[in-house]
Amino acid sequence: MKKFRKRSARANLEHFRVLTARYFRQIFTNAGILLPLLLQAPVMVLILFIVADTTAFTSQNLLRANIILFMLVVMSALMGLLNSYREICKERDILAREVFGGLDVSSYVLSKTAVLSAVGAVQSALLFAGSLLFIDYNMPSPAVSYPLCFLTMILTNISVTALGLFISALLKKSESAILPVLIVIILQVVFSDCLISLDGAAGFIKYITPAAWGIAVFGNIFDLDTWPFQATQHDLYGLHPVVCLAVLAAFALLFLFLTTAKLKREFRQKD
């Protein structure tokens, strides 16, 4: 059984710094990694441009506005998932050697999260800024609303990134990720509480769906429940945006804790 040595906070911080620098270097020196990351957001902006009604918010067209918000938030979530679901399982052998050589598992998970969160923040910024080129959001209090929307997309991305890392920690091979990743995608799409009305037991699943909490912030900002032809009321839209953002942050912290605990337990059980 592996006995982990106690390390100082300074040593753990040094591990975090070195690993973070290494992962950034891997991204920027490998075109096969960098190009897909750079192209994800522009491709999604192009798709949004094709399907979006640029006057949906000024004309209060509820269906078309919901389509835009759905694409913004769910796309941010899916980028986080695609960036993270293979990150741990693809280098499990390397991680095992480094952990038994003295690497701190918490520093490893935090460095992965920091790098992927930075990538996700850039991708979310490109997606949201790109949408501003052709969509008039007609936001109330733009000085507050625009930063709040941007922060919402980032936190949604980070929370699903953390979920992707947890999935990656559970798997031995990246090829095994198809089913759990598909389930996560379905959750974000079906239970986002935006395009599909959720009743009964299905309505409770939205509370564990990051995309639903992200869309709730937009729904509150635009006060969508007061728009014409609103068939159903959304209880999440009535919550203060800070509450929804806090829930997204809690999702991220929970999955980071679970990922770290899973890896520590796994390596303790190895000879």
The coarse overall form would be elongated
**Separation, N- and C-terminal Cα atoms:** 5 Å
Can you write the helix and strand succession as a string?
Answer: HHHHHHHHHH
The total beta strand count reads: 0
* Fraction of helical residues: 55-70%
The tally of helices reads: 10
Largest sheet: none
**Binned strand content:** under 5%
Instruction: Report the uncertain regions.
Output: none
Class by SSE composition: mainly alpha
Report mean pLDDT, rounded to a whole number.
Answer: 90
Radius of gyration: 20 Å
Domain ABC-2 type transporter transmembrane: 15-218
InterPro entries: ABC2_TM, ABCG_transporters
Pfam family, one: ABC2_membrane
Protein name: ABC transporter permease
Question: What's the structural blueprint in terms of helices and strands?
Answer:
Elements: H1 9-29, H2 31-51, H3 62-84, H4 92-100, H5 105-132, H6 142-170, H7 178-190, H8 202-205, H9 210-222, H10 241-268
Helix pairs in contact: 1-5, 2-3, 2-5, 3-5, 3-6, 3-7, 3-9, 5-6, 5-10, 6-9, 6-10, 9-10
In short:
By secondary structure, the protein is mainly α. The protein is built from 10 helices and no strands.
